[in-house]
Amino acid sequence: MKVTETKLAGLKIIEPDCYGDYRGWFMETYNEKKYKDIGIDTIFVQDNHSMSVRKGTLRGLHFQNAPMGQAKLVRCTKGTVIDVAVDIRKGSPTYREWIAVELSAENKKQFFIPRGFAHGFLTMTDNVEFEYKMDNLYSKELDRGVRYDDPTIGVNWKKFLGNITPVLSEKDMNNPLLDESDANYI
Predict the structure, then answer these.
(1) Rounded to the nearest 5 degrees, what angle is found at the Cα of 105, between the Cα atoms of 79 and 102?
(2) How far is CA 150 from the centre of its chain?
(3) pTM of the predicted structure, to 2 decimals
(4) Domains delineated in the chain
(5) Please, what's the b/e burial string for 74-105 (b: 16 or more CB within 10 A of its CB; e: otherwise)?
(6) Could you confirm whether 119 is annotated as catalytic?
């Protein structure tokens, strides 16, 4: 397994070992001991799986406030996405900075996102399937988001979208800017 540390502390790009032959391929998508050995000492309690029909679907930027924050281990199992994590920890030296990673069924990469980061992804193909492992259960009361196009964060979605207008949920269109949100990470 190859692990790449990013410029934002705690964010890791993971490339699991994949073994293939004439029949296809096999890989471990999670092994508690191996992940603990690379610094992901997390007990996952919930798995989610989403499907996005259209290229250009943008989901995010989402997080849950403490005490129900969620660390996530994510991967794309069908199609391709640009996955983004934004540091929303006030006082952090990398506050508002973001990382974008291409995740696809083909490259089999995973992205580990600790608590204190907003998360979102943009589909680069039709019919994308995306899987999440979380270390905390969903909490409707503490579910939050920030605007995908918050200028103080500056995620360059246009670089990936080109002339495509993003497909957004009503909730994501109406998320507050980070400065207007009640994000409670310090």
Answers:
(1) 80
(2) 17
(3) 0.95
(4) 2-16+43-180 (2.60.120.10)
(5) bbbeebbbbbbbbbbbeebebbbebbbbbbbe
(6) no
Alpha carbon distance 83, 69 (integer Å): 19
How many Cβ atoms sit within 10 Å of the Cβ of residue 19?
A: 9
62 is catalytic: yes
Cα 99–chain centre separation: 10
What are residue 154's phi and psi, to 5 degrees?
75, 35
SS (H, E, C) 6-34: CCCCCCEEEECCEEEECCEEEECCCCHHH
Structure tokens that stand for 5 in this block: 């540390």
Round to whole Å and give the CA distance between 180 and 178.
5
Exactly one of 19, 30, 35, 62 is catalytic; name it: 62
Count how many residues are written for the chain: 186
> For the segment 20-69, what is each residue's pLDDT rounded down to a tens digit?
999 999 999 999 999 999 999 999 999 999 999 999 999 999 999 999 99
Q: What is the pLDDT of residues 139-155, one digit of tens each?
A: 999 999 999 999 999 99
How many Cβ atoms are within 10 Å of 123's Cβ, its own excluded?
26
Which of 19, 22, 49, 132 is an active site residue? 132
